[in-house]
Design a protein that fits this description.
Elements (H helix, E strand, L loop, with lengths): L1 H5 L2 E3 L5 E3 L10 H4 L2 E6 L5 H13 L3 E3 L8 E3 L2 E3 L3 H8 L5 E6 L16 H12 L4 E7 L12 E5 L2 H20 L3 H11 L9
Parallel strand pairs: 3-4, 3-7, 7-8, 8-9
Antiparallel strand pairs: 1-2, 5-6
Helix pairs in contact: 3-6
Length: 204
């Protein structure tokens, strides 16, 4: 990109061509132009809800990420497979200004007394986001899923059917946009973008 910019020529009104007068200061891609939001989710059976949430984030000029994104995964048999989803999540979460946990009921995490608990990786991802001071932590939780209660500062949106789920997503978008207008948001965005830069050693 730097070479392309510096190779540009400028012809003034007298017909003189000037070279090397342009220099690249900065540029933006969708991932850098829009604030990143990490979406933690519990099951592949939740694809419709996950898709609706991600599309809503995009429509509101946020850049959604999950631990199983193709960019963070390997390819196997023509499809994306993350060798270690949790490791991928730990790499992405610090680059985000918000963390949203999509918590749906799972039969393999149900209990005889009617409770539904969370898969351990959902808890691990949220705890990690909390430890890295991600600006906004939110849960969209299906009614009946037990609240782990370890993080009272997280924003909670509860639903019992698909229409209520969509209302929760709308409320979340409203709150995320309000967060974006807060004076301290600029610092959070700067820190998240700085975390996207990975320092790599140059071999001798």
């Amino acid at each position: 990109m730097q070479d392309l910019v510096e190779a540009l020529e400028f012809e003034d009104i007298e017909g003189k061509v000037h070279k090397g007068i342009y220099h690249l200061k900065d540029y933006a891609t969708p991932s850098s132009a829009y604030p990143r939001v990490y979406v933690s989710y519990s099951t592949r059976l939740d694809e419709d809800r996950l898709s609706y949430l991600r599309n809503s984030l995009v429509e509101n000029n946020f850049d959604p990420h999950v631990g199983t994104d193709l960019s963070e995964s390997a390819m196997l048999g023509g499809g994306p497979v993350s060798p270690d989803v949790l490791t991928s999540a730990m790499n992405v979460i610090p680059t985000c200004v918000a963390f949203v946990s999509l918590q749906s009921k799972r039969s393999d995490f149900s209990h005889p007394d009617g409770r539904y608990t969370l898969p351990p990786w959902l808890i691990a991802e949220e705890v990690f986001a909390f430890s890295r001071n991600v600006r906004y932590l939110a849960r969209i939780r299906e009614r009946g899923v037990e609240d782990p209660r370890y993080n009272p500062s997280a924003f909670n949106y509860e639903f019992s059917d698909e229409s209520q789920f969509r209302v929760c997503v709308t409320q979340l978008m409203r709150d995320l946009n309000a967060m974006r207008q807060a004076p301290e948001f600029a610092n959070a965005l700067r820190a998240a973008r700085q975390a996207q830069v990975r320092i790599r050693s140059i071999p001798n």
